[in-house]
Amino acid sequence: MNQVPPRAALTEATAPHHPHAGAPGPGGAGAPGPGGEPGPGGEPGRAWASRVADFLLGRAVTIGLVVLAVATGIATFAILARGAPFAARSGAGVGLVLANLSVLLLLGLVLAGRLTRVVTERRRGAAGSRLHVRLVLLYSGVAVAPSIVVAGFAVAFFHFGIQAWFNDPVRTAVTESLQVARGYLEEHRDNIRAVALEMANDINRSGQLLAIDPRDFARALAQQAALRGLTEAVIYDAASEQVVASAGLFGGLGVIPPARWAISQALRGDVVVLDSSHGSGVRAVVSLNSAPALVLMIGRPVDPQILNYMKRTEQAVAQYKRLDANRSWLQIAFAWIFAMVALLVLSAAVLIGLVMANQIARPIGRLINAAERVRGGDLAVRVPEKPTNDEIAGLSRAFNRMTGQLAAQRAELMAAYRQIDERRRFTETVLSGVSAGVIGLDPQGRIELPNRIADLLLGLDLLAATGQRLADLVPEFAPLLTQALAAPERAHVAEIELGPPARRRTLLVRIGADLSGERAEGFVVTFDDITELQAAQRKAAWADVARRIAHEIKNPLTPIQLAAERLKRRFGREITSDPETFAQCAETIVRHVGDIGRMVDEFSAFARMPQPVIKPEDIGRIAREALVLQKTARPQIAWRSDIPEQGPVAPCDRRMLRQALTNLLANAADAVAMRLRGEAEGAGRIALEVAAAPGEVRLTVTDDGIGLPQEDRGRLTEPYVTHKPKGTGLGLAIVKKIMEDHGGRLVLEDRADQPGAVATLILPMGTGGTADGA
Questions:
Q1: CA angle centred on 483, ends 480 and 486, rounded to 5°
Q2: How many secondary structure helices (H) and strands (E) does the chain include?
Q3: What is the C-alpha to C-alpha distance for residues 25 and 672, in angstroms, rounded to an integer?
Q4: Residue whose C-alpha is closest to residue 730's, from 739, 738, 721, 743
């Protein structure tokens, strides 16, 4: 199990980054002073304040305050449950109120701090802040709603209870109970008063016994006391307060005489009723008719429990009257105490709700932040795992396991990707080294992997067109692709022509399927440019034909020509019937034999093209020599030349280059003649230009003839392909062969502004050539 990181590290690891978070406001604590020096209360002050705030708002302090609040509430309830009036214990009431207020203030401070932190996080948009606020509101509502209901019921119950305590029936019952107790005591007093008068009368009638014999008087007094159930009977001398005679249980035990005021009142003829000295009976003092003046004091016991009941009844009635007089203050005091206790419990409940909301929202916020970091590609992030078995801890452990598995899987995927990438680079290296174009297609015929040669052969950027259908990019491939998609179990091969007529090429295309069972996982298209191969094959075939024709035809031509000339000389004078016809036929034979001979010579020249002897030559001079011959042979054409006086110099075979240039000038003259055929007036124009370009020399022949044909333009340089009535089709083939032997090329184009053609010989200069012939 992972250990929980320190708070600072956890905050740094999980808190969402905010561009302005933690930046001190203007004039705030830690704001930089002049010169960039940190002002008072900088980073150490903020760190200290943050630690203090974290401690005060920490879980331990919060739980301690909640326990203290609950203990204070229980103590308050216990004190209130005793029923002790606050008027009798003002100190206890004040202490109770102060204790509740102190705890309530501390709870309010901690609660305000936590609520401030929640609001700050919500405004900052911290992860999980919305859930935190909702949980706080939920717990607060759950705590506040029952408290309000209980408070309403308690206030109503207390109000109606007070009204029930102080209504008229209760007040009547309390008053009458006191009257009953007092009536019982008054009854005892009236009874003892009557007994005292009766006993005094009896003693007055037998007063002579005291003078005759005091002992007999004492016995008579004892009989009186026993007869009337008295505990004491004492006769005092009113003047000296000396005991004259005594009887009864307490009569001879040092009886304290009554107070002087009682004796004086008794001498005036009243019966004075007093409480006994030990508080468990009543006494009566009455005067006797004697001289000197004597007073009689008798005592009778009263039940002590009855006296205690009466005393408690008097105290209860007195307290009831005080409470009745202070009823409004009592209600207010109870309301204050109840409100404080309710706020105390409510604050404690809300604080507990905040702590529980933190326990739920904080881990979820950390999970959200961690999920954002995972979305950003950080799979090493982990959230703290608590040692509990609740759902939040399980979610944290599941998240850590998930990120661990994702990290391991990404490492495996990266390793596999690197391996695939290495194989792909190897495949691309192999494909780039082959001379054929190769294109990998998916099962739907979309491009996946082309090589560079395929781009060059097709003239397209196939890598940029990855994902597009090859049939849409190269429509010429569409029929063969359709066949391959319809029957992927076998390879499909075809020759396909691409490009415009002037640069048409022939590709040998082969499409094979990558089969997995009976299903095609993809296709591989390979193609080669066989244009030059076909031309070389045709050229070799025509060269062989030319050799055979030259050998088979040239042998009988000489005897035929000699025979025709001999017949013309030998029989030209002897034939008289139609000599002109004979001469014309003989001349026709000789002329056509000469034409056939020249054709055979061309066949021989094409079939036995000698190897060029390359050496630096003046290209301008060679051009002028060829142009002079054509000017002399065709004076009716307007010839124009743009040839430098000297140079340029390039390595070449002088005779063969002159032959190539002569063939181009002759073709241009024939094209002009074909255009002017049938026209009465007009002359053609042919221009020859020699120019040096970087690394090459260009010899350009421009005419205003019939131009290049629209059909078979790509085959004009092949043997025996011609559009002239008497052409052999070997002129341009010989020119192309000469240029290939020189490492140059022949370019045939239409004139841009008017009818005609442009033929250009491009000859490389080589390392020793210069533009001026130096």
A1: 150
A2: 20, 17
A3: 91
A4: 721
**Per-residue pLDDT tens digits for 218-250:** 777 788 788 887 878 888 888 887 887 787 766
Mutual angle of helices 327-375 and 90-124, in 10-degree steps: 20
Could you tell me the two tokens for 588? 């026709």
pTM, rounded to two decimals: 0.36
CA angle 101, 105, 106 (to 5 degrees): 120
CA–CA distance from 19 to each of 156, 264, 277, 469 (Å)? Answer: 55, 104, 93, 47
Q: Number of C-alpha atoms within 13 angstroms, CB side, residue 221?
A: 29
Mean pLDDT, the chain, rounded, equals: 75
CA–CA dist 280, 300 (Å, integer):
9
**The residue count for the chain:** 774
CA 308 to chain centre: 83
- What beta strand segments (E) does 489-642 contain? 492-498, 505-516, 519-529, 615-618, 638-642
Of residues 641 and 559, more confidence is placed in 641
Range name among 22-26, 69-73, 527-531 with the lowest pLDDT average: 22-26
Q: Which residues pair with 469 in a beta bridge?
A: 446
Q: Is 649 helix (H, G, I), strand (E, B) or coil?
A: strand
User: Which whole number is the average pLDDT over 628-637?
Assistant: 85
In this predicted structure, the answer to whether residue 756 has a pLDDT above a threshold of 60 is yes
In eight-state DSSP terms, residue 714 is G
Residue 392 has pLDDT above 80, yes or no: no
- Rounded distance, CA 656 to CA 658, Å? 5
Q: Which amino acid is at 165?
A: W
Q: What does the alpha-carbon distance between residue 121 and residue 125 come to, in Å, rounded to a whole number? A: 6
Name the more confident of 729 and 674. 674
Q: Which two three-digit tokens encode residue 411?
A: 């490492």
CA angle 192-195-200, nearest 5°? 125
Predicted confidence (pLDDT) per residue in 134-179, tens digit: 777 776 777 777 777 777 777 777 667 766 666 667 777 777 777 7
β-bridge partners, 438: 526
The DSSP symbol for 368 reads H
The share of the chain scoring above pLDDT 90, in percent, equals 6
Q: Which residues are CB-neighbours of 334 under 8 A, at least 6 positions away?
A: 80, 158
Token duo for residue 237: 């001398």
Amino acid letter, 283 = R
661 backbone φψ class: left, alpha, beta (φ>0; ψ -120 to 50): alpha
CB contact burial 263-301 (16+ within 10 A = b; e otherwise):
bebbeeeebbbbebeeeebbbbbbbbebeeebbbbbbbb
438 touches 431 (CB < 8 A): yes
Rounded mean pLDDT, 121-129: 66
Which tens digits make up the pLDDT trace of 302-328?
766 776 777 777 777 777 777 766 666
Number of other CB atoms surrounding residue 677 within 10 Å: 9
CA distance readout (Å), 576 to 168, 581, 585: 186, 10, 15
Cross-strand pairs, 759:
701, 748
Give CA–CA dist 380/186, Å, rounded: 97
Closest Cα to residue 743, out of 650, 623, 643?
650
Q: Is the pLDDT of residue 582 over 90?
A: no
Q: Using alpha carbons, select from 529, 431, 531, 527 the residue that is nearest to residue 480.
A: 527
CA distance 767 to 238: 173
Q: Which residue is it, tokens 């709870």?
A: 107
* Model pLDDT, residue 84: 47
Phi, psi dihedral angles at 292 (to 5 degrees)? -60, 170
Cis check: omega of the bond before 648, within 30 degrees of 0:
yes
